[in-house]
Amino acid sequence: MKCFPFSVGEKKEDPKSTKSISGQSYNSTFTDGEMKRSGSEFNSQNASDGSSESSRRQSFPSFSQRPSNLRVFTVPELKSATKNFSRSVMVGEGGFGCVYKGLIKSTDDSSTKLEVAVKQLSKRGLQGHKEWVTEVNVLGVVEHPNLVKLVGYCAEDDERGIQRLLIYEFMPNGSVEGHLSARSETPLPWAMRLKIAQDAARGLAHLHEEMDFQIIFRDFKSSNILLDEQWNAKLSDFGMARLGPTEGLTHVSTAVVGTMGYAAPEYIQTGRLTYKSDVWSYGVFLYELITGRRPIDRNRPKGEQKLLEWVKPHLSDIKKFQLIIDPRLQKKCSLKSVQKLALIANRCLVRLPKNRPKMSEVLEMVNKIAETPSRPGSPPLQLKMASMESVRDEETKNKRTISDAKGGENGWFSRMWTPKLLRTC
């Protein structure tokens, strides 16, 4: 999936593009002095004025001001763990470096070996270092069952140059993107897709609502959702994460960066970042789970390359709707269950950010689908659902619109998302 930089007005940060790590998407790492500087940089993000929807959060604590359980590794230790960074143990490669599978000694029992993923930062300058530090600052203090655990880091300077590495728990079942790919030999069953939707929503809800500070993920996508040995889904790659707005402010102003097909239209147009941008990305992801298609796929026929545009005309008719369901599910799923998840996706894709639900609300809705026993072949839902009428009425009262972006292949992001009959977003 292609990532992109956008320039919206004055740039607030280096807008160099990023690339996904294929397979495992572990990303981004400094000396102690550099980490201290990074902590202050992370805390002093530029936020624009505003009063409504203020998050009332405390400042993000800098790395140097909090206790940390992160282990500090040396380069020789990591060479030993990865067979001298051998390509035979490489599990991913991307714009910010390579990821290797490794074995390290457990701190609890030196005779026990732990599998880890070692991300080695390539020497490409400040932007990569900024993401390295952001990753340490976020995962050094934030722990949750649905976030990939950061085990430790390495920051050394020697005659070979700057060495910056991150060490994560190993996720043996790879990324959700990999399993949704047509090349995957193990297509995900519907029950597993619902569980992944739950896990991902739970991870985002924790970042947005369950801490003294708010973290906006900013690069939520299927390649950044990894699966552990028990197929639990965990969010990874926090190099693009940002602290949410402080008390009295409605948003954070940043250079617009992210991944094509996932970024919210208002963020692309204005550079104003809120947690509702993550909610939009989650909505796109739900349609990935439903269709098995990527948000943008240039290998498909012209009318099917952009996922949201392709599914839109299929939402107003039950027969058409069935055509967007991933054929690899082979009708081994309840149509009613799929329709309910699509309705949640539409709620997340409402064009006005304030009308999108919080991730805790999204999680509650997804939980209800997963907990409701439904069999393949159960009667479909009525297209005009009462639960969606309030969304339509609310949007009718709001006459504000966002003008279409001009030119370039990214203009489609800013078009209104309005399915003909459902009019849910």
UniProtKB/TrEMBL annotation:
<protein>
    <recommendedName>
        <fullName>non-specific serine/threonine protein kinase</fullName>
        <ecNumber>2.7.11.1</ecNumber>
    </recommendedName>
</protein>
<dbReference type="InterPro" id="IPR050823">
    <property type="entry name" value="Plant_Ser_Thr_Prot_Kinase"/>
</dbReference>
<dbReference type="InterPro" id="IPR011009">
    <property type="entry name" value="Kinase-like_dom_sf"/>
</dbReference>
<dbReference type="GO" id="GO:0004674">
    <property type="term" value="F:protein serine/threonine kinase activity"/>
</dbReference>
<keyword id="KW-0472">Membrane</keyword>
<feature type="compositionally biased region" description="Polar residues">
    <location>
        <begin position="18"/>
        <end position="31"/>
    </location>
</feature>
<feature type="compositionally biased region" description="Low complexity">
    <location>
        <begin position="51"/>
        <end position="64"/>
    </location>
</feature>
<dbReference type="GO" id="GO:0006952">
    <property type="term" value="P:defense response"/>
</dbReference>
<keyword id="KW-0418">Kinase</keyword>
<keyword id="KW-1003">Cell membrane</keyword>
<feature type="binding site">
    <location>
        <position position="119"/>
    </location>
    <ligand>
        <name>ATP</name>
    </ligand>
</feature>
<dbReference type="Pfam" id="PF07714">
    <property type="entry name" value="PK_Tyr_Ser-Thr"/>
</dbReference>
<feature type="region of interest" description="Disordered">
    <location>
        <begin position="1"/>
        <end position="64"/>
    </location>
</feature>
<feature type="compositionally biased region" description="Polar residues">
    <location>
        <begin position="40"/>
        <end position="50"/>
    </location>
</feature>
<keyword id="KW-0611">Plant defense</keyword>
<dbReference type="GO" id="GO:0005524">
    <property type="term" value="F:ATP binding"/>
</dbReference>
<dbReference type="GO" id="GO:0080142">
    <property type="term" value="P:regulation of salicylic acid biosynthetic process"/>
</dbReference>
<comment type="similarity">
    <text>Belongs to the protein kinase superfamily. Ser/Thr protein kinase family.</text>
</comment>
<dbReference type="InterPro" id="IPR017441">
    <property type="entry name" value="Protein_kinase_ATP_BS"/>
</dbReference>
<dbReference type="GO" id="GO:0005886">
    <property type="term" value="C:plasma membrane"/>
</dbReference>
<keyword id="KW-0808">Transferase</keyword>
<comment type="subunit">
    <text>Interacts with FLS2.</text>
</comment>
<dbReference type="InterPro" id="IPR001245">
    <property type="entry name" value="Ser-Thr/Tyr_kinase_cat_dom"/>
</dbReference>
<keyword id="KW-0067">ATP-binding</keyword>
<dbReference type="InterPro" id="IPR000719">
    <property type="entry name" value="Prot_kinase_dom"/>
</dbReference>
<dbReference type="GO" id="GO:0002221">
    <property type="term" value="P:pattern recognition receptor signaling pathway"/>
</dbReference>
<keyword id="KW-0547">Nucleotide-binding</keyword>
<feature type="domain" description="Protein kinase">
    <location>
        <begin position="85"/>
        <end position="370"/>
    </location>
</feature>
<keyword id="KW-0597">Phosphoprotein</keyword>
